[in-house]
Amino acid sequence: MSVTNLDVNLIAVGRQYMVFIALGVPAWAAATGAAIVESVAVAVHVSWHAHVALREGMRPGARA
Fold it and tell me: What three-state secondary structure class fits 23?
């Protein structure tokens, strides 16, 4: 993962954390929830790209 992607993910987790806090969720639960939401979002994103690559006929590990 590049530094830019890591920065974007950290910003997303921070914003999700702030929303959970604004909703009255305790800090420990807000941090946990934000991390879970972001990890699921990343997993869906990666899965989508794998799905598209397979539909376009690329083999896993092949260079584009």
Answer: coil
The single residue listed with the structure tokens 């914003």 is 15
Phi-psi region of 24 (alpha: psi -120 to 50; beta: other; left: phi over 0): left
Cα 6 to chain centroid distance, Å, stands at 10
Contact status, residue 13 vs residue 34, Cβ threshold 8 Å: yes
3-state secondary structure of 18: helix
Residue 33: the pLDDT is 93
Q: Residue 19 in 3-state DSSP?
A: helix
d(Cα 42, Cα 35) in Å, to the nearest integer? 11
pTM confidence score: 0.65
